């Protein structure tokens, strides 16, 4: 017998979500599978949609090379481009596409001799102020790149800072800056170049901000970056994190359990111990009351999450016993809710999952 903590990765759900992303956007979709597909397994996820994906996006060349080694032949965009000039021959040899987000990259690209021209996504800082060329630098970089032998094709892109906030008009402002900048570059550029603006939140909530290429990430894994209401439950959770009850005890009203004794029973309480802890990626910051399902019934986390174990309230689940299945997140328990209760986001929960067994399934 082995430790029962398991991340079930349902690749059919991943494919379903990719189709939803593509349909909602209406254009081409680069599946964002950086950071090992947000902790889900980049190669498995890529293989699940390789026959239909328009391309993939990863953070860096190391991630992209793993995909090529797994014989993924679709386009792969490096979202931060290259970090040093020495990567350029490898980028060319593997047909990677690159984001250019800073003037130093423009200079290096223009002064390096390449065996073949590259597909370049030129990133505008339209208001997020993280990476991207300023509107003032953008058109000059565009005209230098567009006439250069090293550049096969230019895609004009930007990234939203607040697309998940429906009450903010920042996304519309960013779209306006993007449009103005492109228009200022002349009719030709705007007409000739493809564009890319939307991440998952952009796809789901800003239909006027789409462009030719979308870049869905979190929604592919079934977690909505905006309220679940908006996505109409159409997305399916890809990861189901489960484990089992390994110990049960009763504590009397007023007694405490676990490190720091931070949980004190408000009533006589049946406490289950689950083989999953923060070393598996369950957030230590999750607080008493965080939803958990035991044998299909909803209950709550209690006490402090430890490295290998956590506590669950079984008082109202009389049939729960040693070996009962526990869902930490997945179909019944939304990762978004767990994340919220832990003061973080589902993205971070997924990326942190480790040590558990990964089991892949794909039905149809
Ligand atoms: C990570 C990333 C995405 C995907 O964002 P989600 O919010 O996960 O959809 C899209 N574009 C860029 C530039 C990114 O870095």
Automatic annotation (TrEMBL):
Residue span, Alanine racemase C-terminal domain:
238-361
* Binding positions for substrate per the UniProt entry: 130, 307
Associated pathway: Amino-acid biosynthesis; D-alanine biosynthesis; D-alanine from L-alanine: step 1/1
Q: What is its EC number?
A: 5.1.1.1
* Family from the record: Belongs to the alanine racemase family.
Residues with N6-(pyridoxal phosphate)lysine modification? 34
- The organism is Methyloradius palustris
* NCBIfam families, alphabetized: alr (TIGR00492)
Superkingdom assignment = Bacteria
Q: What keywords tag this UniProt record? A: Isomerase, Pyridoxal phosphate
Protein name according to UniProt: Alanine racemase
Tell me the GO molecular function terms: alanine racemase activity; pyridoxal phosphate binding
Name the HAMAP family for this protein: Ala_racemase
Pfam families on file:
Ala_racemase_C, Ala_racemase_N
* InterPro entries the UniProt entry points to: Ala_racemase, Ala_racemase/Decarboxylase_C, Ala_racemase_C, Ala_racemase_N, Ala_racemase_pyridoxalP-BS, PLP-binding_barrel
Q: Which GO terms describe its biological process?
A: D-alanine biosynthetic process
Q: Which gene encodes it?
A: dadX_2
This chain's function reads: Catalyzes the interconversion of L-alanine and D-alanine. May also act on other amino acids.
Active site residues of this protein: 34 (proton acceptor), 259 (proton acceptor)
Alphabetical GO CC annotations of the entry are:
cytosol
The chemistry this enzyme catalyses reads: L-alanine = D-alanine
Top enzyme class, one word, equals: isomerase
Obligatory cofactor(s): pyridoxal 5'-phosphate
Spell out the SUPFAM superfamilies in the cross-references.
Answer: Alanine racemase C-terminal domain-like (SSF50621), PLP-binding barrel (SSF51419)
């Amino acid at each position: 017998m082995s430790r029962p903590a398991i991340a079930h990765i349902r690749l059919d759900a991943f494919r379903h979500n990719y189709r939803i992303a593509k349909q909602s956007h209406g254009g081409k979709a680069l599946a964002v599978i950086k950071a090992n597909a947000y902790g889900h397994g980049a190669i498995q996820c890529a293989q699940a949609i390789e026959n239909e994906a328009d391309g993939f996006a990863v953070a860096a060349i190391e991630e992209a090379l793993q995909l090529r080694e797994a014989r993924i032949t679709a386009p792969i965009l490096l979202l931060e481009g290259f970090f040093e000039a020495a990567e350029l021959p490898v980028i060319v040899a593997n047909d990677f596409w690159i984001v250019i987000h800073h003037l130093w990259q423009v200079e290096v690209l223009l002064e390096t001799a390449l065996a073949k021209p590259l597909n370049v996504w030129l990133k505008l800082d339209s208001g997020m102020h993280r990476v991207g060329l300023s509107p003032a630098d953008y058109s000059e970089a565009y005209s230098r790149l567009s006439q250069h032998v090293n550049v096969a094709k230019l895609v004009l892109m930007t990234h939203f800072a607040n697309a998940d906030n429906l009450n903010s008009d920042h996304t519309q402002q960013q779209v306006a800056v993007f449009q103005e900048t492109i228009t200022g570059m002349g009719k030709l550029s705007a007409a000739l170049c493809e564009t890319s603006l939307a991440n998952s939140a952009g796809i789901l909530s800003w239909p006027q901000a789409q462009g030719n290429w979308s870049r869905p990430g979190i929604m592919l894994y079934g977690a909505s970056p905006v309220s679940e209401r908006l996505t109409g439950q159409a997305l399916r959770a890809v990861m189901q994190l489960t484990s089992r009850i390994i110990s049960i005890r009763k504590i009397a009203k007023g007694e405490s359990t676990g490190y720091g004794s931070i949980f004190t029973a408000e009533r006589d309480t049946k406490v289950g111990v689950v083989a999953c802890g923060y070393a598996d990626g369950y957030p230590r910051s999750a607080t008493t009351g965080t939803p958990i399902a035991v044998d299909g019934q909803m209950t709550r986390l209690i006490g402090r999450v430890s490295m290998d174990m956590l506590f669950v309230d079984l008082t109202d689940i009389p049939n729960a016993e040693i070996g009962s299945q526990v869902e930490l997140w997945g179909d019944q328990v939304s990762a978004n809710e767990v994340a919220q209760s832990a003061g973080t986001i589902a993205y971070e929960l997924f990326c942190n999952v480790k040590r558990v067994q990964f089991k892949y399934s794909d039905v149809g």
